[in-house]
Amino acid sequence: MHLSELCAFLKERDVRVDACPEVDRVISHVAPLASADAEAVSFLANDKYLTQLKATRAGAVLVKSVHAEDVPSGTAAIVVDDPYYAYALVAEKLSPPAPVQAGIHPTAQVDPSATLGEAVSIGPYVVVGPNARIGDHVIIEAHCVIDQGVVLQEGVRLEPHVVIHHDCEVGANTRIKSGAVIGGDGFGFAPHKGRWQPVPQLGRVVIGARCSIGSQVTIDRGALDDTVVGDDVIIDNQVHLAHNVKVGDGTAIVAQVGVSGSTEIGRHCILAGQVGTAGHLRITDGVQIMARGGVTTDVTEPGSYAGFPLQPQKEWQKTMVYTRSLPKLHQELKALKKRLAQLESQLNSSE
């Protein structure tokens, strides 16, 4: 791809290109700044790598205007408003996924009542249950299990060993990575005379369009209502969503987060690694929760939060500063108490 074609491609994808190089060299791949060669395009999205930018041998780099002067003379600068987003588009363009052959592998078991769309690919040892509906261009890789009544909309891709339990639905162009389990029974048990009576989990899991569900994610089906994941949600590896959880559009959930039952997370939220929530809570739109935050009450205002129990991030930072001062304050308090005892003793003696 020539640089002129690359710039035109970015403009077509709504990237603001402020400057495109006059030199129209060929670019064939993407690479990091430090190891890029003359046919590679790289990017700078973090000032920590400014030294690497100044020394790069890349054929072209995607940079903001503030860093255009830092690009070496032998490298073409493509000035854009968002280098990281532009890089993602270019990488997808230059490194497309390998094509997948449509068809059903001879070891797969597809129930006769299942409905398959056009150009569907079903890999080795896949099981597709009764009345499942598989949309056009769906890819189901090896050893997946699609239970009865499941709906996979157009363009869904399931990596190996994904399990989707009965009657769940996955929206168009969503990708679910290896080992995820969608629609298993929620953790519902009624205590009675020292024993646990299982509560039937009668809802489904409904996942929206264009989502990314990571490896070994577990999303439990609802007890009565559905567990719902909105459109454009991204979920990292080893996340658990309990029964009746609701996740709003455009939210990001990072690895090892646990969301307890019936908690509702708003749109465009970010839950960083190992965040945990209690059940039956409401987290409003536009909330960011820092790593290992513990959510025990509703979060009603957008903003950044941290700590356990959760508090606004700036307050949490102040608390951490005070916490580090506790040993020193303890010693000072001991000294003051000792001095006070001495003064009281002197006062008593004088009487």
UniProtKB/TrEMBL annotation:
Pathway in which this enzyme or protein is active: Bacterial outer membrane biogenesis; LPS lipid A biosynthesis
SUPFAM superfamilies named among the record's database cross-references: Trimeric LpxA-like enzymes (SSF51161)
Entry superkingdom: Bacteria
Catalytic residue list: 243 (proton acceptor)
GO cellular component: membrane
GO function terms (MF aspect): N-acyltransferase activity; UDP-3-O-[(3R)-3-hydroxyacyl]-glucosamine N-acyltransferase activity
Organism ancestry: Bacteria, Pseudomonadati, Pseudomonadota, Gammaproteobacteria, Thiotrichales
Record has Acyltransferase as a keyword: yes
Biological function: Catalyzes the N-acylation of UDP-3-O-acylglucosamine using 3-hydroxyacyl-ACP as the acyl donor. Is involved in the biosynthesis of lipid A, a phosphorylated glycolipid that anchors the lipopolysaccharide to the outer membrane of the cell.
CDD domains hit by this protein: LbH_LpxD
PROSITE patterns associated with the record: HEXAPEP_TRANSFERASES
Catalyzed reaction equations: a UDP-3-O-[(3R)-3-hydroxyacyl]-alpha-D-glucosamine + a (3R)-hydroxyacyl-[ACP] = a UDP-2-N,3-O-bis[(3R)-3-hydroxyacyl]-alpha-D-glucosamine + holo-[ACP] + H(+)
Gene3D superfamilies: Hexapeptide repeat proteins, MurE/MurF, N-terminal domain
Descriptive protein name: UDP-3-O-acylglucosamine N-acyltransferase
The protein's assembly and partners: Homotrimer.
Enzyme Commission number: 2.3.1.191
Family recorded in the similarity comment: Belongs to the transferase hexapeptide repeat family. LpxD subfamily.
Enzyme class at the top of the EC tree: transferase
